[in-house]
């Protein structure tokens, strides 16, 4: 069951203004979803329903697009997203141990966000930096040849 959250009205107004200025709103669902996610940080069901009403399209259509594209998130993300590459090269060189260490340090599992909304942790298929394996990223910053003992220092950069 989704937690009931009260989202700021000013953010809805910003999204409404964006939609109202589109030339063909009904044909701009993905563009609207991108904007909504940039405004709210994620796409909870109440935002999806708002979009459906504003675009005068079925809520199931909005939900279908949100659930199809992995880019869209229905859960809030932390201030910093930590991605652990689980591609073959990184996995062989210990990315699973890095993931375990991060889960332990942050007290969350992969796919979750810390209670203070500081960090979101996730495993990704391949970052495309196999020569630096094992690799993690924090937001857009890449950390290569990471060892378990490096984790605490990396996290301290963002605390």
TrEMBL record:
Please give one Gene Ontology molecular function term for this protein: oxidoreductase activity
Enzyme class of the recorded protein, top EC level:
oxidoreductase
What gene makes this protein?
Answer: nuoE
Q: Which cofactor does it need?
A: [2Fe-2S] cluster
Q: Name one Pfam family in it.
A: 2Fe-2S_thioredx
Species: Senegalia massiliensis
Q: Which residues bind [2Fe-2S] cluster?
A: 85, 90, 126, 130
Return the protein name.
NADH-quinone oxidoreductase subunit NuoE
PANTHER family reported in the protein's UniProt record: NADH-QUINONE OXIDOREDUCTASE, E SUBUNIT, POTENTIAL NAD-REDUCING HYDROGENASE SUBUNIT
Enzyme Commission number(s) of this protein: 1.6.5.11
Similarity remark:
Belongs to the complex I 24 kDa subunit family.
Q: Which InterPro entries does its entry note?
A: NADP_DH_HndA-like (IPR028431), NuoE-like (IPR002023), NuoE_dom (IPR042128), NuoE_N (IPR041921), Thioredoxin-like_sf (IPR036249)
Q: Which keywords has UniProt assigned to this entry?
A: 2Fe-2S, Iron, Iron-sulfur, Metal-binding, Oxidoreductase
> What's noted on cofactor binding?
Binds 1 [2Fe-2S] cluster.
